[in-house]
Design goal:
Elements (H helix, E strand, L loop, with lengths): L1 H10 L2 H27 L8 H19 L3 H4 L6 H29 L4 H17 L1
Helix pairs in contact: 2-3, 2-5
């Protein structure tokens, strides 16, 4: 049964489109996940200009792979605007799941983020200096 689905997808060019959607979801997801990780530590994305440039350049390279003739080499197809919308919806769901699991983990294990730990250490230092 699975091989029939695979053959059907391949015959209609849907397999390559599905692979392109997944490839784009992973690339965009990783680029946005950097912000999620930095925000967990109390850092903004704009605080590191080099990181911001690297994210922009990575996204530009991905668009180059999708929308120039080089897409034949990578065996991907250009995505329509509604397909970008699907990627956005899927990423929002992924992001909400990530936030939910992080919150549950923090509550179960009483974990604090590094930014909270840094604030506690700063308060401890200030208290020690005042003594």
């Amino acid at each position: 049964m699975a091989w029939q689905v695979h053959e059907c997808l391949e015959a209609t060019d849907s397999l390559i489109r599905a692979q392109t959607l997944l490839f784009t979801f992973i690339v965009v997801g990783e680029l946005i996940r950097i912000y999620v990780i930095r925000s967990r530590y109390g850092l903004t994305l704009g605080s590191n200009v080099w990181l911001l440039a690297a994210i922009g350049f990575s996204f530009l390279l991905h668009l180059t792979v999708l929308y120039t003739p080089v897409h034949d080499f990578f065996r991907v197809v250009p995505l329509a605007i509604h397909e970008w919308g699907w990627i956005g919806v899927a990423f929002v769901a992924f992001l909400l799941l990530n936030i939910l699991t992080s919150t549950v983990y923090d509550r179960l294990f009483h974990s604090s983020t590094s930014s909270e730990q840094v604030r506690e250490e700063d308060h401890q230092k200030q208290d020690d200096e005042q003594r």
